[in-house]
Amino acid sequence: TAQLIDGTRIAREVRARVAAEVAEFRERTGVIPGLATILVGEDPASEVYVRNKRRLAVETGMADLHRHLDADVTQPAVAAIIEELAHDDAVSGILLQLPLPQHLESGPLIDLIPALKDVDGLTTLSAGLLARGRPGLRPCTPSGVITLIDSTGISLEGLNAVVVGRSELVGGPMSRLLLERNATVTTAHSRTRDLVAVASEADVLIAAAGVPHLIGPEHVKPGAIVIDVGIHRTESGLIGDVRFDEVSPIAGWLTPVPGGVGPMTIATLLANTVTAARMRADQRMLTRLGP
Length: 291
Ligand code: NAD
What we know:
Blueprint: E1 3-4, H1 7-29, E2 34-40, H2 44-59, E3 63-69, H3 75-87, E4 93-96, H4 106-110, H5 124-131, H6 140-150, E5 160-164, H7 171-180, E6 184-188, H8 195-199, E7 204-207, E8 225-228, E9 232-234, E10 237-239, H9 244-247, E11 253-254, H10 261-289
Parallel strand pairs: 1-11, 2-3, 2-4, 5-6, 5-7, 7-8, 8-11
Antiparallel strand pairs: 9-10
Helix pairs in contact: 1-10, 2-10, 6-7, 6-10
The chain binds nicotinamide-adenine-dinucleotide.
């Protein structure tokens, strides 16, 4: 049976490393890295996510700079708040929790976040930097998936990686991050004709379709690394895109839901926030030294 990739444990290790980096940064610069979270409305799932992000930011020694906006807030009002945070020196990272209420357009709001504070890695500029292979902040969920794969000790170079999903948030950047590691990457999606044929060639299979229990043993090459990004609330608890019990006897490595990708996403957000704080401090130092 597959070895379990313990996202809860690996996320705890990442957070401990982030806490040490935050302490070092505070010592060196006198600045406390600050994470600004923006929550619009009362979506219960989003409330839980934001609460966890804020709690763990504080636990790693960062400042929690939260804004809660009414569900009927206007687009210009949200824009004004993002611009205020963009110019606020106490803010190292800005996270606009998605999804937003129907009447708000998320794309233009996200793009008001400066690339140096884009800890979710979702602005057009950050996506472009990733596409070009240039340094920048990377989206948290796919970046956390890379950390989970690295924890197996297996090198991605030259392996067949199949990503099921091509969203801007997960599947798209996931494929590019795997390519950056020199995997041979295939992106499958809802129009893929024969998912079983494509997926069963994968040495590394990333399930990010958002379809409960889509992936079964027929999709999995024996010994493969299988990462389950899906999260679905059911009456019997959280389930993923992968039928864990059926895939476990075939896969070499497998992430559980819950306790896999979920905790890694938040740990990566915190890692991005301290990276963002450092990048800005270094940039200030550069301009001070520059002509
Ligand atoms: P999305 O709906 O935006 O995108 C889903 C993608 O999967 C699309 O590109 C679509 O083409 C593809 N797809 C849909 N049905 C398919 C099928 N039958 N076969 C092949 N491809 C198919 O969703 P998303 O935002 O990318 O999120 C995907 C899943 O990951 C969701 O379950 C979401 O809840 C979860 N998620 C988890 C985390 C985390 O931290 N663990 C973070 C973000 C999203």
